[in-house]
Amino acid sequence: MNAPGPAFPALQPDEVFDWLDAEAARRSEAGLVRRLRARGPSTDELDLAGNDYLGLARDKRVAGAAAAASLRWGAGSTGSRLVTGSTELHAELEHELARFCGTQAALVFSSGFTANLGAVTALSGAESAIVTDKYIHASLIEGCRLSRADIAAVGHADPAAIAHALATRRKQRALVVTDSVFSVDGDVAPLRELSEACRTHGAALLVDDAHGFGVLGDGGRGAVHDAGLAGEPDVVTTITLSKALGAQGGAVLGPRRVIRHLVDTARSFVFDTALAPGSAAAALAALGVLREEPGLAERVLTVAGSLAHGLREAGLQVSGSGGAVVSVRAPGPGEAQAWAGACAEHGIRVGCFRPPSVPDGVSRLRLTARADLAESDVDRAVKVVAELAPPGARG
Ligand code: PMP
């Protein structure tokens, strides 16, 4: 028999969540309260906060494909992929994604988050080691936690540290996990060096290309393709369909046997309702646009370059060098929130990143470039962000 535990006071039903109020007060004091702002369908605001990098979310070819597919196939997918949720649209999307990115196969998930959860947990376990960059996306971190593998999170963008952790691991099977473009600072991971470290030490490499796909590489084929790693037998890529493609959903791309393994074992694939047909059709249509207009990807980079240049010239502390994400440091979370709020009042919507969304605790404004922004939009955004910068932002 277990020894009796300590006696706790019996709480009334309306008291059991009282502890939430104390937590809320703590967040409020630290400037970490988040507010949901419901936007209308159209706005005069200049949007530099979303992830619609190619400006395709409202493109008639893309949104129209979603509408037509919803009418034909239904608003929802009606079941998990292994039961009734796989339509011809899902199969075609998987075929086209693999063809576009140069991998053997692809598997579509209901989001990038579930794709990451599924890929990490299915490709590791109690009998394996995972080595990660310490700034990987939250969905990858959750995947690592769920995997029960030995985890080593090492210094940011540091292939030597990754190699050292691989060399000193205690489990033979190993997976290295990284973002390609880091979502907070917008910097690009040294993928070739990471791949070399993996090969030296017999590990697989999993790259989350959420922010690189559609933006970097030949015609937007992504950072993994750009590094010459897309078709490699030891490399797995995850992407989201919700950023550059302007749709919704996620995918894992890689060797055929990896994809087969995920179909059978990735719990966020097996037990999740399939992506809605409308979203699959939208992603397919957007992929078609990207094929027809490869210059779109280059245009995002030009816009991002202008944004970063203008903000730097204005004396702000800017990071982000490779993709669409341009990040500006704020003195603290409260200042970041007030700064973003003031920008919104002046018609410029920017992202505000505060702990715990920032791995290093440094709050930032995040501006995302879009292919459909004009130079005059960029100039206006730079002017407003710079003029409203709080004291200390240029420190
Ligand atoms: N990985 C990264 C790097 C991301 O930024 C995001 C989205 N914030 C995701 C994965 C998750 O993708 P999704 O929004 O499609 O779930």
TrEMBL record:
Cofactor(s) recorded in Swiss-Prot or TrEMBL: pyridoxal 5'-phosphate
GO MF annotations in UniProt: 8-amino-7-oxononanoate synthase activity; pyridoxal phosphate binding
Residues in the signal sequence: none
Occurrences of domain Aminotransferase class I/classII large (ranges): 44-384
Pfam families tied to this protein: Aminotran_1_2
Catalytic activity: 6-carboxyhexanoyl-[ACP] + L-alanine + H(+) = (8S)-8-amino-7-oxononanoate + holo-[ACP] + CO2
Pathway entry: Cofactor biosynthesis; biotin biosynthesis
Domain of life of the source: Bacteria
Chain ranges passing through the membrane: none
E.C. number(s) listed in UniProt: 2.3.1.47
A Gene Ontology BP annotation from the UniProt entry: biotin biosynthetic process
Keywords, alphabetical: Biotin biosynthesis, Pyridoxal phosphate, Transferase
Subunit structure: Homodimer.
Stated family: Belongs to the class-II pyridoxal-phosphate-dependent aminotransferase family. BioF subfamily.
Record-given protein name: 8-amino-7-oxononanoate synthase
Organism: Prauserella muralis
